[in-house]
Design a protein that fits this description.
The complex is a heterodimer of chains A (337) and B (514).
Chain A (H helix, E strand, L loop, with lengths): L1 H18 L3 H4 L1 H26 L7 H17 L5 H24 L5 H19 L5 E2 L6 H9 L8 H19 L1 H18 L4 H27 L1 E2 L8 H11 L11 H20 L7 H28 L5 H11 L4
Antiparallel strand pairs in A: 1-2
Helix pairs in contact in A: 1-12, 3-8, 3-10, 3-11, 3-12, 4-5, 4-6, 4-10, 4-11, 5-10, 8-9, 9-10, 11-12, 12-13
Chain B lengths: L15 E10 L2 E11 L4 E6 L5 H8 L7 E6 L2 E3 L4 H6 L2 E4 L11 H5 L6 E2 L5 E2 L2 H13 L14 H14 L4 E5 L7 H16 L3 E5 L3 H7 L2 E6 L2 E6 L6 H9 L20 E9 L8 E6 L3 E6 L5 H8 L7 E6 L2 E3 L4 H6 L2 E4 L3 H5 L6 H5 L8 E2 L2 E2 L1 H14 L16 H10 L8 E5 L7 H16 L3 E5 L3 H7 L2 E6 L2 E7 L5 H8 L7
Classes of the chains: A mainly alpha (337), B alpha/beta (514).
The complex binds adenosine-5'-triphosphate and magnesium ion.
Chain lengths: 337, 514
Amino acid sequence: MRKLAGIGLFLLVLYGSLLIANEGARSAENHYNLGRDIGKYGLISLGAGLLIISGGIDLSIGSVVGLSATVLVILLTEKGWSPLLAMLATLLVGCVIGLVHGVLVTKLRVQAFVMTLCGLFIYRGLARWLAGDKAMSLGRGFPAFWRDWLYRSRAVFGLPMSLVILLVIAGVAAVFLHRSVYGRYLSAIGSNERAVRYSGIATDRYKMLAYVLCSVLAAFYGILFVMETNQVQPSSDGNFLELYAIAGAVLGGCSLRGGEGTVVGILIGTAILQLLGNLVLMWGIPSALEYTVIGGALLLGAILDESLRRGEGRRARGAKEGEKEKQEEEQKDHKPA
Amino acid sequence: MAAEHSGEATPAPYLLEARDVSRAFPGVQALDRVRLSLRRGEVLAVVGENGAGKSTLMKILAGVERLDSGTVLLDGRPLRLGGVQEAQRLGIVLIHQELNLAENLDVAGNIFLGREPRRGGFLGLVDKRIYADAEPITRRLGLDSSPRAPVAGLSIGQQQLVEIARALSLDSRVLIMDEPTSSLTQRETDRLFDVIRDLKRGGLSVLYISHRLKEVEEIADRVVVLRDGRNAGELQHDQISHEAMVRLMVGRELKQFFRRTHVPPAGNVPPVLRVERLRLDVGTGQPISFSLRGGEIVCLAGLIGAGRSELAETLFGLRRPLSGEVFLDGRPVRVGSPAEAIAHGVFLLPEDRRSQGLVLEASVKANVTLASLQRVSRLGLINPPRERALARDLCQRLNVHTPSVDKTVGLLSGGNQQKVVLAKWLTRSPRLLIVDEPTRGVDVGAKTEIYGLMDRLAGQGTAILMISSDLEEVLGMSDRVLVMHEGRLAGELPREDLSEEAVMHLATGGGHGS
Ligand SMILES: Nc1ncnc2c1ncn2[C@@H]1O[C@H](COP(=O)(O)OP(=O)(O)OP(=O)(O)O)[C@@H](O)[C@H]1O
Ligand SMILES: [Mg+2]
């Protein structure tokens, strides 16, 4: 709870400093773009976050985005598939990839880090090969109906559609993670898989589910990406996205040790990352420094998190006289498990 | 921080003394003005129920935990301990209740961890001398694995011996042992006691914690009893008795030992479990055959490393047997995973609560309901009030001491953690319940509750296979005892032939029983 409040506050501070930057930063246009990016990046951070909570990791997200975008463009142009079918097929590609990760990690005991590192290379290569190693354009552009509906529309309260989609998916994910039996298993597996298995739960199934969710969300990102750009550059599109996804999840309080993290936290973490990028732009900081700023913020977050942990321990130890602390502790104890 | 010695140098009556030591954790006063004094060359036992504050006090004395108020004196001089290293330098060594081994290192590597003799200058190579140095210590304790064996492959009991060996290899004046024997069998315990007596003659003082009161009667010179974080009394050598300790611990009389009320059905009842020529993937791989009827409590006895836990894990689907067959209620079954075992009605209470039984970072509530979330959920969604109610009920039935069911389970006292693992299965009605050291680290009162629970389950027709290294428990609870030795069944003892000697004879490889 305290952690969430901390990153929430950080987000507000960042937002405040955006508002005082300049006219452009305050504009509706900038807000719209920011919202749209948060919506997109939130999807992959959510996938990465759920996986991290279950004790896994996925380094191939960017390549999966590249591959699925390539597949989608090929299906729409060269194969002439209907948009709906092509998009479903793209999601299916993500699903299969996730399943392969899950099976190899659980059944063949390949380490998740190694498995998805291999995936990072493999899918990038596949995408380039499928596209004949050149950029592909959608020609007439993405079928208008879908693009307008899924990407451009401001149907709900004038919010960018990708943000609306993210909020809906995050809502489902929050119920899944914090309220459902499966989410409980997932986070318990993240902290002690053995104890969960000994309780008679088919842990492999839940781990596979986390990999599938992560890759499907990456494929979905690929679809939105094609709608935005109307083309795909298989050799570079999606590069580094896994790092953004993981950074968002970690900033949002997911522990790489597994078992820890909330959906709200992941959303806040994503928003912080996007705001940082936007701030660099708006404050006129040389854009070359963008990565440095993000890396610095991440580091700061990690240090603060660790000292918060220790501070809590110390306070708890000094709690002899303080009824106040007791109450605080109790509040902390009542957070959702 | 430096240890502060002050005051004059008159020989103090006590080597180590705790004066009015207090320590609070959120929601609990773990220690409330506790006093304790240890003479030179004395074995002082500290007993008390689960959560009474024993481990906390020991951790404070060894510099692991801080105290809120009070003083600790060494040689009559107040001592401010800044950490474990410093306590060790002053000669205070603690063997923790829970295992703390580096799983990737071998036995000798663990024993000398942090104090390895170096060679090769700045390269800091570990001198192979540690293997030769480790040998006598492990032999003295009866640890029969090689100093080069990786500890990850050792049983819990063997790992415990490694912990003890590490403490013995340190030069100490005060040796604090927090439940050192909780997974040792009679033979290793006897050896340990010989070692303790030796050390005592050499002037070493020992603080000894155990829930096996019989051991305390045997080894202690004096007993200090804690109850709810306070001093509840002290017994001089001639006052030490099981009854006296229990009276001070729980504040009322408790009968000597649990009595079974249910007798297993006589005559020709078909067995619940039949094991035919099962060959384990450990030891000599000799075939094992036995059967268990419903309502029967059968105990697997043997020394540590005899293959008892491995047999349990095989029946629960955690290990593949080399060959052989298992029948449940007459039907042959292949159990490939714990989930399948549970679907067949086979449940296991695992031996190592921390690594196999608990999600330590999660709450008590999440842990006790982990195996029965279906009961409190609809369409996959957990109903929080019902979950809370179920958790409260389960905790109450086993008397788990916790300020709230939301407390992180890893912060409970050892015995209470054990109760949480057991509570997990209370919602189910097993056909076959395998319990591996069910009362490890559990206090007398809770032991009685656990025995009562097993007795009730047996009364309902459950077959129970119990693994225990506590001979008193074996003798008191079992209808039959199967003794294992080096991965095979060494013999079987019916209730009427049960005696400590008979079990030990078979367990040490001494020929067949009746
Ligand atoms: N780090 C901690 N944080 C919060 N509470 C703690 C912590 N350590 C111990 N406690 C609490 O302090 C009380 C005393 O615990 P302690 O481990 O000293 O009991 P114990 O006498 O050793 O019990 P056992 O026989 O079960 O080992 C318990 O209620 C326990 O939950
Ligand atoms: Mg203890």
